[in-house]
Amino acid sequence: RYFGTKIAFYFAWLGYYTKSLYIAAFMGIITVLYGIINLSEDVMSYLFDNGITVIFAALMCVWATFFLEGWKRYHAEIAWKWGLLDFVVEEDTVRPEFQFRVKTKRYNPVTQQEEPYLSGKKKIANFLAGGVTMCLVLAVVFGMVVYRVICMRLLASFYNSLAHWLTRWECPRTQADFDNSYTFKVFLFQFANYYSSLFYVAFFKGVLSQLPGTRDNDGNVKIAGYRLEKAGHLMNRWEADYYLNPTYDQFLFDEYLEMVLQFGFVTLFVVAFPLAPLFAVLNNILEIRLDAYKFLITIQKPVPAQ
């Protein structure tokens, strides 16, 4: 248990989820094959929206239920094997930030010491403040989505008018030349309008984050691997680990969030694309290996915890 039970449970859950997706992927393939066999040239949408799509949707609901209940059983099984069923945390460690920020104290008859204490009114006030902030953030996000949709619609109309004006300004000789020039401009503008965000995520967003393999001002090589150098000299393994990307307390949250979002897409929108479970299986097979490589090689070892 070099990494602790939290990371062990993450890989156990990811492996169980991936194996469970085999059934969903098989049902999705059957649905698509049925659509291909009965495909009509007049109705291409029959490939996904065919006679057994409703049955496939119902089976996916059953699959999701069995997956959740099966994971509860498997979780209890591995917890028993790892000796964690009787594990009880005697006392949680008080966070240093809590001790620093909370100025009021109360006498604890158990420890017979003055300890930081947060009153119930203060807790309710903090909770309400956090709830209001969350509502405001969600409202802003929703407003940005609406704003984005409106802007895309307005820009689409503007781009069409601009393309038409530019084409008329070019003064093509024939109607065919006019149509070709106008079509090229419209497609170019609409391509930039609808796909600019995707290109940003695909090609530019990752450049802004630091990746292993760069050198700092002292000449330290920050790269994933066993042979790291410091000012031209080989470093010990423990010293090399110090220069790897650091972890934070909730680093597993991002890993779980990624898979939970995938589970939501697979279960909620699988009818629109029955092959989604198949691609999820392929993604998760790589995800398990890449996560293991990341924990072992590219980041500092987190503190083991149960």
From TrEMBL:
Entry annotated with the keyword Transmembrane: yes
Topology in the lipid bilayer: Multi-pass membrane protein
Protein name (record): Anoctamin
TM stretches of this protein: 21-39, 51-71, 127-150, 260-286
Protein family membership: Belongs to the anoctamin family.
GO cellular component: plasma membrane
Record carries keyword Endoplasmic reticulum: no
Assigned keywords, A-Z: Membrane, Transmembrane, Transmembrane helix
Superkingdom of source: Eukaryota
A Pfam match: Anoctamin
